[in-house]
Amino acid sequence: MQQRLADWLRLLVAHDTSVPPGDTGPLCRDLAPRLAALGYRVSLHEASPGLVSLVAVLGAGGPQLAFNAHADTVGVDDLAAWHSNPFELAQTDDRLAGLGAVNCKGSLAAQLVVAEDVARRGGPVRGSLSFSVVADEEQLGSSGTGLLRRDGIVRPDYLVVGAPTGNGISSAERGVMWVAIETTGIAAHAGVPETGDSAILRMLRILNRLQTELAPRLAVRTSPQGQATMNIGRIRGGENTNVVPAFCRVEIDRRLTPSENVAEAVEEIRACLEDHATLELLVGSSGFIAPADGALVRELTAAVRHVTGRAPAFPSAVGASDGRHYADDGIEIVTFGPGDGSLGHAANEWVSLHELAEAAMIQLDLVNRLLK
Fold this sequence. Notes:
Layout: H1 2-14, E1 18-19, H2 25-36, E2 41-48, E3 51-59, E4 64-70, E5 73-74, E6 90-92, E7 95-97, H3 105-120, E8 128-134, H4 145-150, E9 158-162, E10 172-173, E11 175-184, E12 188-189, H5 199-219, E13 222-223, E14 226-227, E15 229-237, E16 243-244, E17 247-256, H6 262-270, E18 277-285, E19 288-289, H7 295-308, E20 332-336, E21 350-352, H8 353-370
């Protein structure tokens, strides 16, 4: 199994799927015939050029257990910081290094081994099993998993989203929302600024209100899944130093506790605006909590104990996964996979081969338990 895992990860890393542009087409077209040869019904879904997702299904009817992992990665910011070619898997003892090795091609490699082994033993005993290899996750886009959900291509009862959780079970996640605020003013020469109307100064007043009025309210919104937060991530405005700016734009990341909803969070920000300012929701989805006594958490917990001999950890999710697209569908969702999430998005990211094998065996055991 370890050799197969290394071979799959080597193939995955060799495909440059970094963002931008996040082109997953060649990788998905490489995987498609391999999965079809195992007996899977395979389909490719391209939301826009290069943003290709693959779906492979075995069995029929319900319940459906769906495995999902994103194939896109962040880009290589500093090639000199890498000790090896980021697109060639490098092995040092138990460590496998390469771009996306931990986030999230390691999880994908483990899921592909599960796909192989379930197919070779004849498929699930009951229900159906699906594997999704998706695009557009790194940009919180909706052209990967979001498309599969919107078009009814994948409609699971249980969803396991690949993520570097150290093979712990992340059973809850905050919601995420990105918004853009734009302000407009009147351009003028900087020598006579009183003849214009600064869009940047207007934006500063709005940002001040967000910090003095909204931020304190968010500070007291806590949950076991994490704190309600707001981050001003981007700001752009002005044409030249000697011109009163007629335009300014900021983009804000807002993380929501599971009890909050996107519509109300948007309106809280809108209340801080003033004239000549607009608000656009760029992306937004609710958080989710998989019930501790639900079948997915219960059986995955049992699988971790069976394979490792220890109780699973239940780490809190810092980021947002593609599970968010199904957050309002009333299904059970967890994120699970090998690796240390803090190594992702960094030079020389690596994943343990032993942990990869553990992840594959745990998920195989989960299939046995849920679809028996």
